[in-house]
Write a structure and sequence with these properties.
Nucleotide Exchange Factor Grpe, Chain A, domain 2; alpha+beta; about 210 residues; 3-stranded antiparallel beta sheet
């Protein structure tokens, strides 16, 4: 074996036989100090939170109670007005229905009163004083009963003719009477609570 071949083998043997030194691959003390002196990276600041909306101020309990009281009072007043209107309307309808009922009955009785009047005239013409007096009393009682329920007789002699209350049976010239004046009443008229129940039958001056 030559010397040149023996040298590399000896070198390889020396490297394999050399023991490992602990920490040989660690950086030196100077390198560690230099690394420690390097500034640390700044930490990222957390993102700012969105500005919170201001919380509404708590309502005033007294003002809230007053508002509710005003609302309830307005509601009560409206309902009271509606009830008053209903009560008035119901009263008007009841009165109208009562008037219609009485008017229907009175129309049936009015011919009897007319006959009493004719009987009185005949009795007075034949001198039946006491008999006529008795008939007059009966007639007065019937007229008073009608008056208590709002039915009134009227006799428009001497008044201007009114077609809404009078029914003209004839028209003729009358001395001393102005044209259009009622000069004679053939049949009395009747009203019920101010409304004409039966117009008066009359003669009008021409």
């Amino acid at each position: 074996m030559s010397d040149e071949t023996a040298k590399p083998k000896a070198a390889t043997f020396a490297e394999e036989a050399a023991p490992e030194i602990p920490g040989a691959d660690q950086p030196s003390a100077e390198a560690q100090v230099a690394a420690a002196e390097q500034p640390l990276p700044e930490a990222a600041e957390p993102p700012e939170e969105a500005a919170a909306e201001p919380e509404p101020e708590p309502a005033d309990p007294l003002a809230d109670a007053e508002a509710r009281a005003a609302k309830y009072l307005e509601l009560a007043q409206r309902k009271q007005a509606e009830f008053d209107n209903y009560r008035k309307r119901a009263a008007r309808e009841a009165a109208a229905a009562s008037d219609r009922g009485m008017a229907k009955l009175a129309k049936e009785l009015l011919p009897a009163l007319d006959h009493f009047e004719l009987a009185l005239r005949a009795a007075e013409e034949h001198g039946a004083g006491e008999f006529a007096k008795g008939i007059r009393q009966i007639q007065d009682e019937m007229v008073a009963a009608l008056g208590r329920v709002g039915i009134q007789a009227y006799s428009p002699k001497g008044e201007p003719f009114d077609p809404s209350e009078h029914e003209a049976m004839a028209s003729q010239p009358v001395d001393g009477a102005e044209p259009g004046t009622v000069t004679e009443v053939y049949q009395q008229g009747y009203r019920i609570n101010g409304t004409v129940l039966r117009p008066a039958r009359v003669v009008v001056a021409a």
